[in-house]
């Protein structure tokens, strides 16, 4: 997918090379689903990030030229859909709840004679 097809903002920093970096952003809270492309709030639109290397200008000069250092940043390059988690589902996945379920199953299990 080409970045220029996504909605994007241009990040500008005069002390960075490149000075301009396009950053994608998500237009919807939910995701466009179904044959008519309706927004579904059962999914949420979330940005996808990519690490990238830039050059950051330092205050130092060498031979009349700027000195740059390598820096790593993450930039949003697109959006994807992830399922929206239900509050009940989140609590059922905790390790404490799993231990409680194991204890209840063990208590209710008929003992073999």
Automatic annotation (TrEMBL):
The keyword Ribosomal protein does not apply. GO terms for cellular component: extracellular space. GO terms for biological process: inflammatory response; negative regulation of hemopoiesis; positive regulation of cytokine production involved in inflammatory response; positive regulation of granulocyte macrophage colony-stimulating factor production; positive regulation of interleukin-6 production; positive regulation of interleukin-8 production. It is found in: Secreted. InterPro entries: Cystine-knot_cytokine (IPR029034), IL-17_chr (IPR020440), IL-17_fam (IPR010345). Keywords: Cytokine, Secreted, Signal. It holds the Pfam family IL17. One of its GO terms (molecular function) is protein homodimerization activity. It comes from the Eukaryota. Gene3D superfamilies: Cystine-knot cytokines (2.10.90.10). Belongs to the IL-17 family. This is Interleukin 17D. The gene is IL17D.
